[in-house]
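debug: dumping io for the single-chain case to check the tokenizer round-trip. Nothing else runs in this session.
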Amino acid sequence: MIAVLTMPGLGIVIHEFQKSSEEEQRKRLYQSIQYLKRRGHVAIKYLSNKRLKITLTKKGKTIVNQLAIEELQIKKPAIWDKKWRMVIFDVPNWKNKNRLAFTDNLKHIGFRMMQKSVWAYPYTCYDEIMILRKFYDIEKYVIYLDVGMVEDDYVWRRCFSHLRLN
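debug: decoded output
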């Protein structure tokens, strides 16, 4: 049996199993897939030639995206370009959970709060911020700035001293 996990534009063969030598592994994989199906994370379709097509459901994609968000990291260049990246936002109260999750992710990435709803970071992170604001559905409330000069620059450099800003 061959199990295939598909995502839009992507098919991955998980493993090809031969009944005689790997029956236990096959059974564990089948149980795991059934568990994911019961939880609503995947849909299963049986194809010809004993093939099994497994696709992520909307709920499954949300979980995969959440895992990707939690692993989000910013590449740090060898030399700092002496620019500050700032994120400012004004998210309405009815999206409070989204705002809190967004700020938790800013902290996790390494941003520092300058003022309430104003965060700074020394390296370019435009793509990462665009991903976060879209994921938390707060795009129209978040602004990304690339700034050349910040008052009290030396204070902010000290906040990021572990990054060795020169």
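debug: round-trip ok. Helices lie at 23-38, 58-70, 96-109, 126-135, 153-159.
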